[in-house]
Structures are given as structure tokens and as C-alpha cells.
Amino acid sequence: EEALVSSSHTGICGFLHLLLCGAIACDTHASCGTIQHYHHVFETVQIKSASDIFGLELDFSRCVRTYLQLKNNPHQMCWTWLKVIATDASHSSQGFFGHQSMRQFLDQQQYSVTGILRYEKMFGKNFVSTGGPETTAEFVPKLNLQPGEQVLDVGSGLGGGALYMAENYGVDVLGLDLSTNMVHIALGRAISCARGSVIYEVSDVTKRHFRDGSFDVIYSRDTLLHIKNKAELFKTFYRWLKPGGRILISDYCCGEGEWSDSFKAYVEQRHYTLHSVKHYGKLLADAGFSDVAADDYSQQFSDVLLREINRATAEKDELIKEFSQKDYDDLVTGWQAKVKRVRDGDQAWGLFAATKRVASDE
């Protein structure tokens, strides 16, 4: 790895392409490393020159579509790395809240493997977003998906939504998530679920590049709360969509009033960036989208949370056996706190739909 870093140049020519077989340890490739292992190996490499220290920054890693379609093998991976000066924010000792990157922050904090599996117990198998399969089955029909359409699932998590769209509507889905742990778990399950129409990728949507007009649909569930500059991201989404393309987003929002001290502390601890439902819709309109619908689903959010609390309570012994008493207590109290924040008017939940104008409308 050090030789590869030393021999590459910074900038455009600094991209390092690495194709690995069996990147996820499994029965047939027990000696292979996990995605986390490969990321750690390459991210810890640093080379000193006369004036700078260089390292590698992940551009993206994804399973190879051909292997998935022809062999039902999601474990053939491709990585693209960029040689960077290690004094950049992503490689500095300060980094993102004490971590080298936001991805590492998420993987080691909110989206540790244990944290993800705990969330899944609340949301439902293969889901880490509010309402899991219930809200997915309610929201996805709003997109009027057609067979063969190209869908970008931003924040695909464990792949529940991507698989639902592919299996029920015959669309091709690129599931993109910043969390290596999320994609690691999703790929570990993909061998028994994939139909050759869902590809998983680890990447940062704010740094990713796709050709204009690449997708018919962009779908995102409770993910963009992590994105600070949503205005710029929505302009990027607009470019990525084909004319007439659709977007559907659910996301955490805030109330219209002044935030309580406890809500401020919660948002700061999570490093979220939240907007009111109304302002969120305005950001989409300002990005160029038409037919923008910004609907406040806070009451449904609260109702779903209460049902998830009741399910967790009914499965208390199983949860404690699989995790711990503390994990169970943290989940239930965390969900109860969300309900209270909604009741107090601090927290909200929005559902947003919009369309990219066709040429004759622009």
C-alpha cells in the first residue's frame, strides 16, 4: 500500500483503483477481509515527502454489478481511492469531531455494528428508518416506479428499501451509504436476497460524481439530517435526475418555534442539521424542482414510535438476551424522548416529493 501511495500523484492522477475478490469474509472466502478491514488498512497508510504527508481518502467502494448479475456474488468489490495531503481535514488529528472523517465518526458512534443491529430490532428486518417495512410500503407507491428505471437510494442502510423497490417494481437500485458498517451488513445478507438489480456502495453523497441525467428517481429515508449544506445537495440531485425524474425524501425536521435547551443539546450531540418542514420544501423549490410537496408527518412519526416501543416492550426478554439490559433501556428511553420532542413541538418529521421539469416546462 505504501508503494502505491508513493508512486501516485495528487489531484486527478491520484486516483488509485483496486479490485478485490471476496472482500467480505464468507464461507467460501474465509481468508478474505471485511470492508472495514480494507478501509482501515488503506486509510492508515501515510507517506512523508520533503514538505507534506500523504494518505489515501476513499472515493467509493461498491460491489461489481457483473458478478452480482451473473453469479449472484455481491462480494466482488471495487475500491477507488484518492491520494490526498494528510493535513486536509479528512486526515488531520482534529478531523470530524475527533475522527478522521464523518464516515469514521458514524461507524464508531451512532452506527457501530451493535448500534445498527439495535436499531434494526426497533425498525424491522433490514431497515434502519422510521416505520421500516410499513412506511416503505406506504411511501414508495408515490413514486410510480416503472420496470427498468434507475433509482439512487441515498442512505440505503441495510438495504430494506432498495430490495423492496427492486423486488416489487423491477427497478435497478444503487444503494449508497456513508457507513461502512451498514454496507458490510447489507452485503453479508445480499447473497440470499439479491436479484441482480441492487448494488451497494460506500461513499459520501456530497463528494460523489454522476453524469447529469443518470437517474429516474432519487429516494432517501431519514438520512439527509446528517448533511449540512442541503441546498447545494438538492441542486446536485436535480442535475443527477433525468427530465421528469422524481425525488422522495423523508427526514427529521424541527418545529417552527424556538428550540428548547434539551433539543439543542440533542441536535448538537448527533451533529444533525435540521430545518422546518416548510423551509425544507423551499430548499427543494429553490434547487429548481417543481410540484414540490412538503408534508408534516409528525403525528404519524409519533404513532409509529409508540408502536415500536410497544413491540420492543413485548420482546424485552429477547432484546436483553441478544444485547443487554442497558441496550434495551437505551432504545426505549431514546424512542420515548423522540415522542416527547414531537409533543413539545421541537422535533418534526417531513415527507417531501418533487419532480424535475421536462425541457418544455423549463
Structural notes for this entry:
This protein is an alpha/beta fold. It contains 14 helices and eleven strands. The protein has helices spanning 2-7, 35-43, 65-71, 102-108, 113-123, 132-139, 160-169, 180-190, 230-240, 261-270, 277-286, 298-314, 316-322, 325-343; strands spanning 15-20, 46-48, 53-63, 77-85, 150-154, 172-177, 198-203, 215-221, 241-254, 290-296, 347-355. Strands 1, 2, 3, 4, 5, 6, 7, 8, 9, 10 and 11 form an eleven-stranded mixed sheet that branches. The longest helix is centred in the C-terminal third of the chain and has 19 residues, at 325-343. The radius of gyration is 21 Å and the shape is globular.
Question: What is the compact description of this entry?
Answer:
Helix content is 40%, strand content 23%.
List the helices and strands and how they pair.
Blueprint: H1 2-7, E1 15-20, H2 35-43, E2 46-48, E3 53-63, H3 65-71, E4 77-85, H4 102-108, H5 113-123, H6 132-139, E5 150-154, H7 160-169, E6 172-177, H8 180-190, E7 198-203, E8 215-221, H9 230-240, E9 241-254, H10 261-270, H11 277-286, E10 290-296, H12 298-314, H13 316-322, H14 325-343, E11 347-355
Parallel strand pairs: 5-6, 5-8, 6-7, 8-9
Antiparallel strand pairs: 1-4, 2-3, 3-4, 3-7, 9-11, 10-11
Helix pairs in contact: 12-14, 13-14
Radius of gyration: 21 Å
Q: Approximately what portion of the residues adopt beta-strand conformation?
A: 15-25%
Outline: globular
- Write down the secondary-structure element order: HEHEEHEHHHEHEHEEHEHHEHHHE
Per DSSP, the total helix count is 14
Largest pleated sheet: 11 strands, mixed
Cα separation of the termini: 49 Å
Mean pLDDT comes to: 85
Count the beta strands. 11
